[in-house]
Amino acid sequence: MQTTRSEVATQIRTDTLLHSSLWVNIALAGLSILLFLYLARNVRANRARLIVGATLMIPLVSLSSYLGLVSGLTVGPIEMPPGHALAGEDVLSQWGRYLTWTLSTPLILLALGWLAEVDTADLFVVIAADIGMCVTGLAAALTTSSYAFRWAFFLVSTAFFVVVLYALLAKWPTDAEAAGTSEIFGTLRALTVVLWLGYPIVWALGVEGFVLVDSVGLTSWGYSLLDIGAKYLFAALLLRWVANNERTVASATDPAAVGAGDPLED
User: Which of 48, 51, 56, 133 has its CA at a distance of 20 to 30 angstroms from the CA of residue 80?
Assistant: First the structure.
């Protein structure tokens, strides 16, 4: 096992595209953590702090994930099943990405849900569907016994994704309007929906799907670019808005909301 991990790590290091796609995100995750701590330094209201806490965890999870990928810990070769364009060949699977998405995407939805003051039951259902989407996506990526089963898991994952999209596009905007956060929610919703739609497209076009893009490095860059927008850009926009509009975010019954957004007195 140790030799295999060492070989995988060497393979990653010698693939310039793959290696760079991982290290760029490590650097951006580290910088984002510092930036987000600065943006949120004066946030005091409870609801705003909940949003900040969920959002800060996004780059922390991402940093841990990309370290696992670049070290070879959460990467490994899998043999593609009959029917796949690379049938019988070993393909380097970055299965650790799915673990990251299982943790980071619920945090994104949690922050959006708190921003829009979504009902707790609705928020739970959507996050559960999101986790189901990520887990079945992992199953699709790791299934080697049957090409049909790979796509079956992909379709189940897509069905879970539809539930998430329905909430973001049809239900949560009404809650955000009532909460007075519809403007920033609309921006973040559009960013999230557009970029999240890119993940299954990259899967289908890349080495895990139809292999129209037959490079592991290019496929990895596709995921990495989506992560940059869906995580760091999303979080920066959200935290900046929360820090500047803390009174709007804070619940009217929140005692910490008094003076929220005002400069701290000496």
Answer: 133
* 75 secondary structure, DSSP code: -
What pTM did the predictor assign? 0.91
Question: What stretches of the chain adopt beta strand conformation (E)?
Answer: 76-79, 90-93
Write the pLDDT tens digit of every residue in 59-70. 999 999 999 999
239 pLDDT above the threshold of 80: yes
Q: Which pLDDT band holds residue 6 (cuts at 50, 70, 90)?
A: confident
Reported as a single tens digit per residue, the pLDDT across 201-212 is 999 999 999 999
Backbone φ, ψ for residue 92 (5° rounding): -75, 110
User: CA–CA separation, 70 vs 72, rounded Å?
Assistant: 5
List of long-range contacts for 156-164, beta carbons under 8 Å, 24+ apart: 157/132, 157/133, 157/200, 158/133, 158/200, 160/129, 160/130, 160/132, 160/133, 160/136, 161/129, 161/133, 161/196, 161/200, 163/125, 163/126, 163/129, 164/109, 164/126, 164/129, 164/130, 164/133, 164/196
Residue 75 carries which side chain, given as an amino acid letter? Answer: V
By CB atoms closer than 10 A (0-12, 13-18, 19+), residue 152 is: middle
How many C-beta atoms surround the C-beta of residue 230 within 10 A?
A: 22
Tokens of 141: 């990526």
Q: How far apart are CA 241 and CA 176, in angstroms?
A: 14
Structure tokens at 57: 């965890």
Mean pLDDT throughout 207-230? 95
- Angle separating helix axes 96-116 and 46-70, nearest 10 degrees: 170
Closest to 62 (Cα-Cα) out of 201, 197, 231: 231
Instruction: Look at the alpha carbons of 153, 154, 158, 164 in this order and tell me if their dihedral is positive or negative.
Output: positive
